[in-house]
């Protein structure tokens, strides 16, 4: 069993989360992706407990935001997706699932200092998440794991022979962030972009492929 999945099963809230979110397609893979993001998120919120709202954009079944709400000192958590998932969301305290197109999001949506997290938004969705981070002054931090490659101009084709890495580098440059690779994550799309407008935040040492 993957390391992240072992960690997940040891959580006191493990059974509660599974009961609320089941069925979870590709459960082992999705758990590893979620805990990969949670590890980054934890470093921010533990320094400022209950300060931040967390926005899980393109949330899908909201596994990441649900784990975050159960395990971390967050003010409130929002999961956002264009499709409505019918789950017993009322069982999660300080949590709200919003059916919303992220291309309609403006700074007025964010009432408190916020952190955006996103796992595997495809193509232009990832680019739009970067735009929201840049344009919204209340959004202080971004943790993004990109997926499918969108349209961009390749700058490093003679240096890096990997389109996915080049896509991640392109997105990272848009938010002035850091790139890391989580090899414990079961997805081959395992690059994480972390960005912060608060310069005191220190992430892991950048790893650029």
Topology:
Blueprint lengths: L2 H7 L4 H8 L5 H19 L7 E5 L5 H9 L4 E6 L13 E5 L14 E6 L4 H12 L3 E7 L17 H13 L2 E4 L9 E6 L13
Parallel strand pairs: 1-2, 1-4, 2-3, 4-5
Antiparallel strand pairs: 5-7, 6-7
Helix pairs in contact: 1-3, 3-4
Describe this protein's structure.
The chain is an alpha/beta fold and about 210 residues long. It has one domain: Vaccinia Virus protein VP39 (Rossmann fold, 3-Layer(aba) Sandwich). About 35% of the residues lie in helices and about 20% in strands. The chain is built from 6 helices and 7 strands. It has helices at about 5-10, 15-20, 25-45, 65-70, 125-135, 165-175; strands at about 55, 75-80, 95-100, 115-120, 140-145, 180, 190-195. Strands 3-2-1-4-5-7-6 form a 7-stranded mixed sheet, sandwiched between helices. Strand 4, helix 5 and strand 5 form a beta-alpha-beta unit. Helix 1 crosses helix 3 and helix 3 (about 25-45) crosses helix 4.
What keyword list fits this structure?
single chain; alpha/beta; Rossmann fold; 7-stranded mixed sheet; 6 helices; 7 strands; globular
Distance between the termini: 27 Å
CATH topology: Rossmann fold
Which spans have pLDDT < 50 for at least 5 consecutive residues?
Answer: none
Topology pattern, helix = H, strand = E: HHHEHEEEHEHEE
Structural class: alpha/beta
**What radius of gyration results from the CA coordinates?**
16 Å
Strand percent estimate: 15-25%
* Strand arrangement in the largest pleated sheet: 3-2-1-4-5-7-6
Q: Number of DSSP helices?
A: 6
State the fourth-level CATH superfamily. Answer: Vaccinia Virus protein VP39
Q: Specify the oligomeric state.
A: single chain
Supply the CATH class.
Alpha Beta
For the secondary structure, the number of strands is 7
Which word captures the global form? globular
Tell me the CATH architecture: 3-Layer(aba) Sandwich
């Amino acid at each position: 069993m993957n390391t992240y999945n072992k960690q997940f099963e040891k959580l006191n809230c493990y059974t509660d989360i599974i009961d609320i979110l089941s069925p979870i397609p590709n459960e082992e893979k999705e758990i590893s992706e979620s805990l990969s993001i949670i590890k980054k998120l934890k470093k921010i919120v533990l320094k400022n407990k209950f300060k931040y709202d967390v926005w899980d954009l393109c949330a899908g079944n909201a596994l990441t935001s649900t784990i975050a709400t159960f395990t971390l000192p967050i003010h409130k958590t929002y999961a956002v997706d264009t499709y409505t998932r019918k789950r017993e969301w009322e069982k999660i305290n300080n949590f709200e699932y919003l059916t919303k197109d992220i291309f309609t999001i403006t700074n007025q949506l964010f009432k408190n200092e916020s952190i955006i997290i996103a796992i595997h938004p495809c193509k232009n969705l990832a680019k739009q998440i970067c735009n929201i981070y840049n344009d919204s002054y209340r959004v202080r931090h971004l943790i993004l794991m990109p997926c499918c490659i969108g349209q961009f101009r390749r700058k490093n084709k003679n240096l890096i022979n990997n389109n996915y890495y080049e896509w991640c580098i392109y997105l990272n440059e848009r938010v002035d962030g850091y790139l890391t690779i989580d090899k414990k994550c079961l997805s081959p799309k395992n690059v994480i972009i972390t960005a912060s407008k608060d310069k005191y935040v220190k992430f892991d040492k950048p790893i650029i492929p």
